[in-house]
Amino acid sequence: MAGSSLEKIIQTGQPRIINDLVQYLRQKPESESTRLIVNEGIRSSLTCPLIANGVPIGFIFFSNTQTNTYTNEHIERYMQIAEQLSVIVEKGNLVSQLAAQKELLEQQNAELRRLSVLKNNLLGMVAHDLRNPVAIIQMMTAILRNPNLPRSPEERRRLLDEIYRQTEHMLLLLNDLLDLSQIENGTVTISPEPVPIESLLEETVNRHQMLAAPKHTRIELTDELNGKLYADSLRIRQVLDNLIPNATKFSPPGSVITISVERDGNWWKFSVTDQGPGISPEERSRMFEAFSRLSARPTGGEKSTCLGLAIARKVVLAHGGVIDVSPTPGQGATFWFTLPADPLERA
């Protein structure tokens, strides 16, 4: 509209009469809007500005198929119509704005309610998960400190080992909480770089193979591992360090955990497949929520902070990837995620 005759109407607030649009088009052949209405048979027009509270909000066009239709005597009447229409339009805009603001407030309130519930659940679960280990540690240290309850070196070692396991679980929970909080707040920096897939997976599998040995669980790699991905290697190890132990934890002793990777265009797809109980469709929707407790239980009495999958999801999303699970109830599950390929290898 800048530079057009309509801009002048807005600036001055004065209506415009053109009683011979054909002649006007000869003078301004570049006016496409005039050409369109002339082709429709319109020969005269009266354009009035719509002004609400001193602010221009649009125009109203009156037109006729005859030339010399409008005179100055028409202006007052049509400006009254324009003024009334301006009020209607402004009220409509206000109603729309109020409706939009109401919807936004409802969304914000719903989010606040969700966060409040999440906070309460978080506090309750953290208190529960920390209280039990603290109670066990307190009981065992009381036994060790009681001079009236002498213990053999083997018994003392067993009690100290249990204290160590409990503190290890608490430290794991606190570290996971810190990681999740930092990722949620955006204070964790993702530093992507070319990462060789083969060395990443072989190092990860070797490390977890030792941890899975007590359950006689094997972790196997499949498919071709040549290539690089473009990611933060430390954070991707964190994703694998959550998915692989989960697969071991919920699979029966003697199971095989399969890890595969395949190239799909500009993305690498990583998969971790277990032989556990699978996941029901009802539970799938909340798999990656913090502190989400599902019906499946660890087969070897392992403990869980219920934060690992939430952390893995945040890390993958921060890389622009996707993470999901393909469950088959009663037949195991495959957790998979995608990461970008090395930019140098992209087509």
Automatic annotation (TrEMBL):
<dbReference type="GO" id="GO:0000155">
    <property type="term" value="F:phosphorelay sensor kinase activity"/>
</dbReference>
<dbReference type="InterPro" id="IPR036097">
    <property type="entry name" value="HisK_dim/P_sf"/>
</dbReference>
<dbReference type="Pfam" id="PF13185">
    <property type="entry name" value="GAF_2"/>
</dbReference>
<dbReference type="InterPro" id="IPR050736">
    <property type="entry name" value="Sensor_HK_Regulatory"/>
</dbReference>
<dbReference type="Pfam" id="PF02518">
    <property type="entry name" value="HATPase_c"/>
</dbReference>
<dbReference type="InterPro" id="IPR003661">
    <property type="entry name" value="HisK_dim/P_dom"/>
</dbReference>
<dbReference type="InterPro" id="IPR005467">
    <property type="entry name" value="His_kinase_dom"/>
</dbReference>
<feature type="domain" description="Histidine kinase">
    <location>
        <begin position="125"/>
        <end position="343"/>
    </location>
</feature>
<keyword id="KW-0902">Two-component regulatory system</keyword>
<keyword id="KW-0597">Phosphoprotein</keyword>
<protein>
    <recommendedName>
        <fullName>histidine kinase</fullName>
        <ecNumber>2.7.13.3</ecNumber>
    </recommendedName>
</protein>
<dbReference type="InterPro" id="IPR003594">
    <property type="entry name" value="HATPase_dom"/>
</dbReference>
<dbReference type="InterPro" id="IPR036890">
    <property type="entry name" value="HATPase_C_sf"/>
</dbReference>
<dbReference type="InterPro" id="IPR003018">
    <property type="entry name" value="GAF"/>
</dbReference>
<dbReference type="InterPro" id="IPR029016">
    <property type="entry name" value="GAF-like_dom_sf"/>
</dbReference>
<dbReference type="Pfam" id="PF00512">
    <property type="entry name" value="HisKA"/>
</dbReference>
<dbReference type="InterPro" id="IPR004358">
    <property type="entry name" value="Sig_transdc_His_kin-like_C"/>
</dbReference>
<keyword id="KW-0418">Kinase</keyword>
<keyword id="KW-0808">Transferase</keyword>
